[in-house]
Amino acid sequence: MTETPEPEFDEQTTKALARLTHKLAHNKETRRAFSKLVRQVEPERAAAFVDVTAEERIEELEERQAKKELEREQREIEKRLTEQRHRLIKTEKNPDGQYTEDEVKEIEGVMTRYGLSDYDPAVVLYAHERPPASPQPPEGVAKHGATWEFPDFKAFVGNPTGAARDRAHEVISEITRNRSRR
Description:
Largest sheet: none
Shape: rod-shaped
Radius of gyration: 40 Å
Oligomer: single chain
Helix content: 55-70%
């Protein structure tokens, strides 16, 4: 590449260019770009822009730190979501889970549809959108309208406190038996 010969300027043009250079070098909006041009064309004069170099390094460090922080936050969110997901799915290791793998995928669809990043509100929306067809009481529990037996009237008249206590114990035993069947 051949070098371009340096042009000769009269004093007035030299002063005008010097003023322009000064304005470019000291304007907040043009100083950084001007510094890059000077480093590219005459690197030995780049020392005049040491502040710009320092700012660039600081910004680079801040960007790296922000990137690391963002990555850390993403890992925490992924960990939380994974834990929530495993908590929802019913497996041998997690018998307390309430949903199948397919249902959890539907819940994830709810999360996507509503822009949620948490399973808990998505589960509430999923349950709201898909209520049970007709809630049924567990087996062994009396259905609405069932009849109850009245206590033995003679035992009740003879000893009301004892008869009430005996009947209460019978009912509690029946409830306990029904719970253990589930």
